[in-house]
Structure formats: C-alpha cells, structure tokens
Amino acid sequence: MNYHQYYPVDVINGRGTRCTLFVAGCEHQCPGCYNKSTWRVNSGVPFTQAMEDQIISDLQDTRIPRQGLSLSGGDPLHPQNVPSVLHLVRRIHDECPGKDIWVWTGYTLAELNAAQQEVLGLIHVLIDGKFMQELRDPSLVWRGSSNQVVHQLR
Asked: What pTM was computed for the model?
C-alpha cells in the first residue's frame, strides 16, 4: 500500500483529535473529487513498518490524547489496500484499546467483498458511497454528498 499524507494531529476528519492517513488508490474516480492526486495505486510513498509504528506510537502518546485513526484517500478499501489496512486496524485494535477507527470508502456496504467486510469487523465508523457532484452539500458533516452514509458500526 502507498499513502500520500499522514497527519498525526487532525481535528477535521472524524470526531475529536485524531491521526489521519490518506492512502493511494481509488478506482471510483468521482467527478469533482478533491483528492484526485491519490487515485493511482502507485502514487505517493510506500506504507512502511516505520510509518505503521509511528501511527501506533502517536495513538498511544498521552501528551496529545487522540480519539483514534481516520483512514481516507484514495480509498482504504481499494482491493490492493485491504491487506495492509486490515493489518493496521488489527494492530490498533490490539495495541490501542479505546481508540476508534473511521474509514471513508467509495464502495457501499452492499458492494463490499469478504476481505473488505473483515475490515468492517474492526472499525467503528464507515462513511460509504461515491462522491456525487450533483449531490454535493457543504453543510454535511464528514461527507461531501448527500448519498454518502455515515454508519456507526460499534
């Protein structure tokens, strides 16, 4: 998996103060997307063990209490990203008790395959659905268009 940006302190992408990782790879390529640079799976930089360790360390750091991790992109549930995302969310689940995990994806719940659904078993919030320019609504919280749904999973 590759990623484009990591924010160790973020108050925009989810509830509370969080860590946020923007991964590479999105096959939806929605017209009007604000993050087109993340569409290609080979763009950005490789997601390394050192980066994964940094996220865990940041989530465990009590000097800046963080509520959890947000995964956006690109699409964290792009088939090429799922193995790395699954490994990361398992590790957070095991090593960072009490931290929540939010995932944004262009897929809907009904479109998710078994591997993608395995990720859902470990996360707390899923925002699903493609961004649709004709349904764009800047007043929405944590989503860009009204077709997208915020699912509280845990």
From this structure: 0.95
